[in-house]
Amino acid sequence: MITTNNYYNQINSMGANHLPSTLLKSHELVNKVTQEGASWETYNSNATIKRMIDLYLTKLNEYVKQEKPKQKTVNPGHKETVKREKEQHQSKPNKKHKEKAVKQKKMDTATPVEHIEDELKFIKRFTLLNGKTKTAEQLLGFLNSLQKAIIEKRIRKTSPYANEIKIIQEKLVQTYNTMDRSVQIQLKPETMEKMIKLVKSEKVMPSIKFIKRYVGLQGKKAIKDKAQKLFDDMKKAVKQGVLTKADKYADKVNVMYLSLHNLLFKPKQHDALDISKHELNGLLGILNGCGCHGLDGIDDDGEELQAVTKQNKIMNSVDFARMQFDSIGFSGKWLDFIGDPSKGFTAMVFGKPKMGKSYLCIDFAGYLARNHGKVLYVAKEEKLDATLQKKLNDTNVKHPNLFVSDYLPDTLSNYDYVFIDSVNKMELQPGDLDTLKANNPGVSFIYVFQTTKEGNFRGSNHFQHDVDIVIEVPEKGRATQNGRFNQGGEMDIF
To answer: Is residue 331 helix, strand or coil?
Structure first.
């Protein structure tokens, strides 16, 4: 039995070069993770890597068991016959055997996993650039997505794919800095071959795909057509050997299959799927544990999923205290001033005229564009005139990710951050801002307000109560901040 304790002794005696390509890739992963046996610390501390290597060891032991030399005794009198038959077989290959060999060659040898690592998703996205013509904006979008994943620590230095991610980042930056409006991407054949091997090394478990589709039917009516399609696909997957008892969640799939069967073939008064709260919580726990970020949108099969009804929750305070919430990753003076807000935050900025609130907002917009995504600055008050141009140049914030407008577009889903300067000029009410937020989930809004003669923001107190961050410019060139992410921040504007 090959284990982590005797791995390198066993593999050296076998000869790693004699392993099949899929096992050889896993061996190379072990070499990376352990620095060729120098340390198994990453294996012991990283659950994902441990799972991958343990699965590899299981498959390696199965391979060794199957490949043990079998002693055969051949009657000397039959040697010539055997030789002749072998030569005939080689000269006229059996059609069925040939087809079987081709089928086995094409067989998917990827490791089944609960979710594809973010690194592999970026590597796949990178390989798809090969031979394509891309604009500067498209490359910048890819680069920003990658940097955001690194900032949010979804990609770490300890990743087994850190080398490839570094190559991708350097290639994107180099291309972006030297290109004109567009460029055709050409990757080296050896780079493509290596990265495609990595992309094909993992696949999502069939059971996870079926669980996603099944949970998407929860709480919906008139879903018999979708239920029938799911039921048929599950039967087909079992028949073709795609879904087997060896799947980690085969027992869950069995329960789902029976539930679908009851819906389709046992008469009921209603046309909805019965999923107990206990069963639903268990399935959602599997999906949350596999890193599936929500159930809206498109899954790995391209199947559109239904939105899952949000469940009310009661949690133990100790468990809640241990939870980790994603933040945007602010740094420098903005971290000191505001803190590190979460995605979709709201802020209000107010101050008397000529105190510097627009300079502050434009500077903030530039920081967000350079580091955290696409920004739209709606300059309803100043319009797109020389004054706004001067402020952009004075703060040196112009960037491909920063857009300016003199009106509020109907669609804001293309942007991560939207500045509205000003709320009063656009005659927006608290209810209007609530609607903006509801229609654009995940978009952060920064609202600029005019002030009264006394220096208070103009409008209902509901504005202040409904935002996460309140920024005031009480005197020229000086800003103060109070909010959920940092109490009592102060900053010089200029």
So the answer is: coil
